[in-house]
Amino acid sequence: MKFKIALVAALVVGLVSSLAVAAPAKGPKGKTGTTGTTTTTTGKVKKPKKVCRPNVSLILKGTLVSVAYDQLSFTMDVKQTNRHAKALYKGKTDVSVQVNAKTKIRRLGKRVALSALKAGDRLDVQARLCKVKKGTVVVDTAPPLAVRVVAKPAKPAPTTTTTD
């Protein structure tokens, strides 16, 4: 009986040790560790860490006032916002918004450049801004960066008809 227990124990120890040596465990994001102090990687390049995490999404609705000369920002007269923007722009109606190459700008369902927008166009803007602490956001560093801009032409002025 003692011989059978010793034989089973030796087989288990041999099996466990062979599995441990057979393939090194993979760590996070493709890094493989070896038995020594060196580690090897699979050749993936590390992305730089984002400075701005987490982001706050601002929803701004209003009319276009002007587009900057350099085509990198615009000013809008805000009529309606979400709760994050309300806390940020208390009593302020003219807001400057930045755009970049990744910003998707649409007018009448077609993708256009910022220069195609006209003053008075109705805008729906989704923008991002860095969040510093819970409930507070940074305002003084830079205006919010627009992710998506949807523009519609200004509503025509109502016409009144008089009958004599």
Please explain how this structure is put together.
The structure is a single chain. By secondary structure, this protein is of the alpha+beta class. It has a domain at 63-152: OB fold (Dihydrolipoamide Acetyltransferase, E2P) (Beta Barrel), CATH 2.40.50. It is 16% helix and 36% strand. The protein contains 2 helices and 10 strands, in the order αββββαββββββ. It has helices at residues 2-22, 83-88, and strands at 32-33, 39-40, 55-67, 73-81, 94-98, 104-107, 110-111, 122-133, 136-137, 145-152. Strand 3 (55-67) and strand 4 (73-81) form a beta hairpin. The radius of gyration is 30 Å and the shape is rod-shaped.
Question: What is the element layout, followed by pairings?
Answer:
Layout (H helix, E strand, L loop, with lengths): L1 H21 L9 E2 L5 E2 L14 E13 L5 E9 L1 H6 L5 E5 L5 E4 L2 E2 L10 E12 L2 E2 L7 E8 L12
Parallel strand pairs: 6-10
Antiparallel strand pairs: 1-2, 3-4, 3-8, 4-5, 6-7, 8-9, 8-10
Globular, elongated, flat, extended or rod-shaped: what is the shape?
A: rod-shaped
Please state the structural category: alpha+beta
Mean pLDDT: 79
Helix content: 10-25%
Low-pLDDT windows of residues: none
CATH class of the domain at 63-152: Mainly Beta
Indicate the CATH topology of the domain at 63-152: OB fold (Dihydrolipoamide Acetyltransferase, E2P)
Q: Rounded to an integer, what's the Rg over CA atoms?
A: 30 Å
The biggest beta sheet is recorded as:
8 strands, mixed
- What is the name of the CATH architecture of the domain at 63-152? Beta Barrel
Binned strand content: 35-45%
Number of strands: 10
Number of helices: 2
Distance separating the two termini: 120 Å
The sequence of SSEs as H and E is HEEEEHEEEEEE
